């Protein structure tokens, strides 16, 4: 952008168009009429085009002015929103945000999001709720949550909601270290042991079902149906259960060697994880800051 263009140039142009008169625009901006006329002339000289025509009936935008005026308005509006956001962030407790996080997001992404957000807006009051896809989207629709982060659900669960994809995540099959299946990690052997299996309302259940069908494995008869990360982490180390769970839920435990992921191809279980919001929801400074923090967290964790 030409550095000679200043905010006063954009303010002068937009106010002249808004008032339909140089005289009234000058009064609104506390300038003299010669001063605002000179400011407009400077802008026209910088852009190399006539932006306004003047007549006894008032002023009118030229085609070039019509084009430039829209961007001038957008620039000033964005600047005002940014300044308002900074002012809002500076008032302790002024910004609040209620976010729902599905289990894989709560365990893997949210700690980094909170870290990033703390550097951007330490005064923001963040409330985090976890739970199933149906539970959290229900709270979102009711207005009890501002955003939800998790897997894209079935079409009927997404009515009235927007979805912005962040990354893809697959299902992992994990066991305790030293589990007998590790000597021969064949998916068809899982029925020899209890299985922690996604509950019917879990977003990952259809993906797990398709994986088992593709591999010719029947739905395990001995199964505990849950996507509770807390239960799985507590139960698995002292049992021979096999756990189907979103990879993000157990990423840290697998990395630290507390759990072992079976070397089974699960690419077919990949599904999009993203931000969900009500389609009619208005933007706020808190939401914008949070979304920026999410983007930084995704990049730091190399999830894209």
Automatic annotation (TrEMBL):
<dbReference type="Pfam" id="PF00126">
    <property type="entry name" value="HTH_1"/>
</dbReference>
<dbReference type="GO" id="GO:0019619">
    <property type="term" value="P:3,4-dihydroxybenzoate catabolic process"/>
</dbReference>
<dbReference type="InterPro" id="IPR036388">
    <property type="entry name" value="WH-like_DNA-bd_sf"/>
</dbReference>
<dbReference type="InterPro" id="IPR050950">
    <property type="entry name" value="HTH-type_LysR_regulators"/>
</dbReference>
<keyword id="KW-0238">DNA-binding</keyword>
<dbReference type="Pfam" id="PF03466">
    <property type="entry name" value="LysR_substrate"/>
</dbReference>
<protein>
    <submittedName>
        <fullName>Pca operon transcription factor PcaQ</fullName>
    </submittedName>
</protein>
<dbReference type="InterPro" id="IPR036390">
    <property type="entry name" value="WH_DNA-bd_sf"/>
</dbReference>
<dbReference type="InterPro" id="IPR012787">
    <property type="entry name" value="TF_PcaQ"/>
</dbReference>
<dbReference type="InterPro" id="IPR005119">
    <property type="entry name" value="LysR_subst-bd"/>
</dbReference>
<dbReference type="InterPro" id="IPR000847">
    <property type="entry name" value="LysR_HTH_N"/>
</dbReference>
<dbReference type="GO" id="GO:0003700">
    <property type="term" value="F:DNA-binding transcription factor activity"/>
</dbReference>
<keyword id="KW-0804">Transcription</keyword>
<comment type="similarity">
    <text>Belongs to the LysR transcriptional regulatory family.</text>
</comment>
<dbReference type="GO" id="GO:0003677">
    <property type="term" value="F:DNA binding"/>
</dbReference>
<feature type="domain" description="HTH lysR-type">
    <location>
        <begin position="5"/>
        <end position="62"/>
    </location>
</feature>
<dbReference type="GO" id="GO:0045893">
    <property type="term" value="P:positive regulation of DNA-templated transcription"/>
</dbReference>
<dbReference type="GO" id="GO:0005829">
    <property type="term" value="C:cytosol"/>
</dbReference>
<keyword id="KW-0805">Transcription regulation</keyword>
């Amino acid at each position: 952008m030409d550095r000679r263009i200043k905010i006063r140039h954009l303010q002068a142009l937009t106010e002249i168009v808004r008032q339909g008169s140089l005289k009234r625009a000058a009064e609104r901006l506390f300038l003299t009429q010669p001063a605002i006329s000179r400011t407009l002339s400077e802008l026209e000289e910088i852009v190399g085009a006539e932006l306004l025509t003047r007549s006894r009936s008032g002023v009118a935008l030229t085609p070039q002015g019509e084009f430039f005026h829209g961007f001038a308005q957008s620039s000033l509006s964005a600047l005002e929103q940014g300044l308002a956001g900074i002012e809002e962030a500076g008032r302790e407790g002024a910004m609040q945000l209620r976010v729902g996080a599905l289990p894989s997001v709560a365990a893997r992404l949210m700690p980094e999001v909170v870290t990033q957000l703390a550097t951007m807006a330490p005064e923001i009051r963040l409330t985090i709720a976890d739970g199933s896809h149906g539970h959290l989207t229900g709270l979102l629709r009711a207005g009890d949550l501002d955003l939800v982060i998790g897997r894209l659900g079935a079409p009927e669960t997404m009515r009235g909601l927007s979805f912005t994809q962040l990354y893809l995540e697959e299902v992992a099959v994990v066991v305790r270290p030293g589990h007998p299946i590790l000597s021969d990690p064949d998916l068809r052997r899982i029925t020899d042991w209890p299985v922690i299996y996604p509950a019917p309302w879990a977003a990952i259940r259809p993906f797990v079902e398709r994986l088992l069908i593709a591999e010719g494995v029947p739905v395990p008869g001995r199964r505990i149906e849950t996507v509770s990360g807390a239960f799985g982490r507590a139960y698995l180390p002292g049992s021979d259960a096999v756990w189907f769970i979103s990879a993000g839920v157990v990423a840290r435990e697998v990395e630290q060697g507390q759990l072992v992921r079976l070397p089974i191809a699960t690419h077919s279980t990949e599904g999009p994880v993203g931000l969900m919001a009500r389609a009619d929801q208005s933007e706020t400074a808190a939401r914008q800051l949070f979304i920026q923090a999410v983007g930084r967290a995704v990049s730091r964790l190399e999830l894209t």
